[in-house]
Design a protein that fits this description.
638 residues; mainly alpha; Cytochrome C Oxidase, Chain A; two-stranded antiparallel ribbon; 2 strands
Length: 638
């Protein structure tokens, strides 16, 4: 008698996807990072990826400075210079400062508001993988030789007429990056508004959380504007539409309006996170509360609001007419007011404080000083006749580097030195850190301050070479020497970073005597952040747990203070409270993979032998839907 063979029931798609989910939950090593939905790990991945692109963008800047060090150089030809110039600007804005800010959002927001994770952990992972794949797609032209060459601003009709696929990579890469930014923006808005610890009212939130909230609203409102511009550029390039082609009735100024309507809120997307970081660091090292907290908060909100009304100051020389130029000149001056309020409040915080000159404070003060210089040169751009002289000269290059490098990058480095111990359990070397700061400060000013003089002497931006006898030689050489000093400072930082991870001094949970909730839990934090969700009774909650007033009104430390909180936290965690955390998942990565597949199909399908690319479009859609479907079948937590 034949033995019975058990019937093989077909496995449904849902069961297969659930099987992948359970496998992901057991991943170890690198696979555990690929499947992670932990906000801290995602923040680390954002930060490391952004720093790698910072090095790439820095190398591109070095090529530019070497080319311009002397008259009539030929290190690169004009086409190569355009390509490097385009990728440098694009990389620094979209692949460095924005994702580095996102790294801090991921690392700090749940800890500072007393939450265990962000509102949508898998959407958070999706945001990172979309960013990484979009960045790789944007840089794919380095492999194929099709490198974007129309400037990081993509001015039409040059970007429409650019040959090859370089501008296709740029256009579709920015679309993918915009999806990442939008996902992160919505996630942090929901997290901040809905997951704050009990007692943490809006005006008990740390300033960094406020700036994250404002930045997130700017992202979700500004990204659709550039998305529209990029869609129209795509139709012009792929389907011979005429949005920007003046020969067929298009309007090149339409691109400038759309790009700068996005581009000026983008400036505040880049700088507001650094302002938030500095607003946390100065009170800690001045050992006093932030001066004028409500004014700092409302000035940040006003900056985000007024930032929508200044875009045309990039267009004073395009013939908008006197009324428009006057209106945007006035609005540009007005936006300097809330920025000045922040600066005076920061100075008021330091005034009379018991200053501890640690490395995070040096970078924070450096940020304030460099940003003041950039802001003052920015005010000169608001004066329309003055701007007519400065427009498209190196004076403008000096201005935005003082704002974005002197402001954003210095602020981000202050945050790295401040919170490094919280996530590694070790301290960065103070001595090496101060060497890094002084080298970077000296190199930065050597590089970019001469650009003011070059601009006033008439050196145009975006030129790859210049003749002798223009009076620009010495300033360009000084600037190039400064760039090498900045490069040396980055080597010092990397040495400090790697050395400290391996054998840096062990850090306590609260090495800086901090004021906010992240300093009440162990370093590094456990996966669940808080064993018991804290109850907040005051602004600067961690400080109030450590200090009280005695009978004479003097501030005295509570015995044990926040250290008792840490010990209680560790004990509570060890007891195994029923804390349910979201499971790891590979579906955000799967969904993200579908986007560059679609982009590659759109890029290559119209080529002479591009038939192979057309199936990538529906295949990418299928991969995206599989990832979303699998994602949707997953339970919320263990």
């Amino acid at each position: 008698m034949a033995s019975a063979i058990p019937e093989q029931r077909p496995v449904s798609i849902g069961e297969a996807l659930r099987g992948l989910r359970h496998e992901a939950a057991t991943y170890k090593g690198i696979l555990s990072w690929i499947a992670t939905v932990d906000h801290k790990r995602i923040g680390v991945m954002y930060g490391i990826t952004a720093f790698i692109f910072f090095l790439i963008g820095g190398l591109e800047a070095m090529v530019i400075r070497i080319q311009l060090a002397q008259p009539n150089q030929s290190v690169v030809d004009p086409q190569q210079y355009n390509q490097i110039f385009t990728m440098h600007g694009t990389t620094m804005i979209f692949l460095v400062v924005m994702p580095m800010s996102a790294a801090f959002f991921n690392l700090m927001v749940p800890l500072m508001i007393g939450a265990r994770d962000v509102a949508f952990p898998r959407l958070n992972a999706f945001s990172y993988w979309v960013f990484l794949l979009g960045a790789l797609f944007l840089n794919f032209g380095w492999i194929t030789g099709d490198i974007p060459d129309s400037g990081w601003f993509g001015y039409a009709p040059l970007s429409v007429q650019s040959l090859g696929h370089g501008m296709d990579f740029w256009m579709l890469g920015l679309q993918i990056l915009g999806i990442s930014s939008m996902a992160g923006g919505f996630n942090f808005i929901v997290t901040i508004l809905n997951m704050r610890a009990p007692g943490m009212s809006l005006f008990r939130m740390p300033v960094f959380i406020w700036m994250t909230l404002v930045t997130s609203f700017l992202i979700i409102l500004a990204m659709p504007v550039i998305t529209i511009a990029l869609f129209e550029l795509g139709f012009d390039r792929f389907f011979a539409a005429n949005f920007f082609n003046p020969e067929n009735g298009g309007d090149p100024l339409l691109w400038q309006h759309l790009f700068w309507l996005f581009g000026h809120p983008e400036v505040y997307i880049l700088i507001l996170p650094a302002m938030g970081i500095v607003s946390e660091i100065l009170p800690t090292f001045a050992r006093k509360p932030l001066f004028g907290y409500p004014f700092v908060v409302f000035s940040g909100i006003l900056i985000g609001f007024i930032g929508w009304g200044v875009w045309a100051h990039h267009m004073f020389t395009t013939g908008l007419g006197a009324p428009a130029n006057a209106a945007f000149g006035v609005s540009t001056m007005i936006i300097a007011v809330p920025t000045g309020v922040k600066i005076f409040n920061w100075l008021g915080t330091l005034w009379g404080g018991s200053i501890h000159l640690a490395t995070p404070l040096l970078f924070a003060v450096g940020m304030v000083a460099m940003f003041i210089i950039g802001g003052l040169s920015g005010v000169t751009h608001a004066v329309v006749p003055s701007d007519f002289q400065q427009q498209d000269t190196y004076y403008v290059v000096a201005h935005f580097h003082y704002v974005l490098f002197g402001g954003a990058i210095f602020g981000l480095f202050s945050g790295i030195y401040y919170w490094f111990s919280k996530f590694t359990g070790r301290m960065l070397s103070e001595g090496i850190g101060k060497v890094h700061f002084w080298l970077m400060l000296a190199g930065f000013n050597l590089t970019f301050f001469p650009h003011h003089m070059l601009g006033l002497l008439g050196m145009p931006r975006r030129i790859y070479s210049y003749p002798e006898g223009m009076g620009w030689d010495v300033y360009n050489m000084i600037s190039t020497v400064g760039a090498f000093v900045i490069a040396a400072s980055m080597l010092v930082f990397m040495f400090n970073f790697i050395r400290s991870i391996k054998r840096g001094r062990r850090a306590s949970a609260d090495p800086w005597d901090g004021r906010t909730l992240e300093w009440t839990i162990p370093s590094p934090p456990p996966p669940y952040n808080f064993a018991t969700i804290p109850v907040v009774h005051a602004r600067d909650e961690a400080w109030h747990r450590k200090y009280v007033e005695d009978d004479q009104g003097r501030i005295v430390r509570v015995p044990a203070g926040a250290e008792h909180d840490v010990e209680s936290h560790e004990a509570a965690g060890a007891e195994g409270h029923h804390i349910h955390m979201p499971l790891p998942s590979i579906f955000p990565l799967i969904a993200a993979i579908g986007l560059p597949m679609i982009a590659f199909g759109l890029t290559y399908y119209q080529d002479t032998h591009g038939e192979w690319a057309l199936p990538l479009i529906p295949a990418g859609v299928v991969v995206l839907l599989i990832g979303i479907f699998g994602w949707g079948l997953e339970p919320e937590a263990e």
